[in-house]
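Title: Prediction job returns without error message
Component: structure pipeline
Severity: low
Priority: P3
Assignee: unassigned

Description:
Job completed but the reporter wants confirmation the result is attached to the right record. Sequence as submitted:
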Amino acid sequence: MSRVTTHPKVTSFRPPETGDFAFTEASWKEAEFALAKYPEDHKASAVMPLLWIAQRQNQGHLTRAAIEYVAQILEMAPIRVHEIATFYTMYNLEKPGKVQLQICRTTPCMLRGADDILAAVKTKLGIDDGEVTEDGLFSLMEVECLGACCNAPMMQVNNEAYYEDLTPEIVERLIDDWRAGKTPTPGSQQGRAGSEPEGGPTVLTDVQDYGAADGPYANGTFVPAEVRRARAAAAQADNEAGTSSDKGSS
């Protein structure tokens, strides 16, 4: 057994109870990739990615056997791995629906209508927070900030895809699509690109392929400021000369 890495005072613990859970060959390849990022005597640092691999292999949730299997691999006290698995909402201790709806309710989303989104989902699916539909297709979870505040309200699906700029009507349509076996396109559901303002960009609208028309890269290559100033002065002089000539001819 390698020496304990992050909490030296933890010197003994009961043996992990892994049951019949074990990584498949594919999961082991992923686990080895994660473990390779850390020194042998700090392999406990790989606990979160290994729990994630175990959850994905186990149809989207962690059992006690799966959690303690990870503890066995990392030679950690089982209680320490249970503490991690029960703290983060990314880990499911019960089997979720095939489509796991995780609705953000932190301040920006709340101010933009997250409560209405949540109510629409509950009514549409007939379930409450933490529940799964009878057919096992959908589950619902209220979560905290997912970092897409600019496009609030939003939800994450299956711990991966973000669906943003939601309304109750849009969420109901998305649910209908999943029921029909479709995979709705993630991202803004109102056509926004990235986090640009509603209605499109309002600044830097004159930027060309190489930057602003009067910027240092306007023609695709860098032009020093003094050269740009000299060119502008020459252009102005030419313009003034042309204006004077026009007056003289008249």
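Comment from assignee: result matches the submitted record. The longest strand covers residues 99-104.
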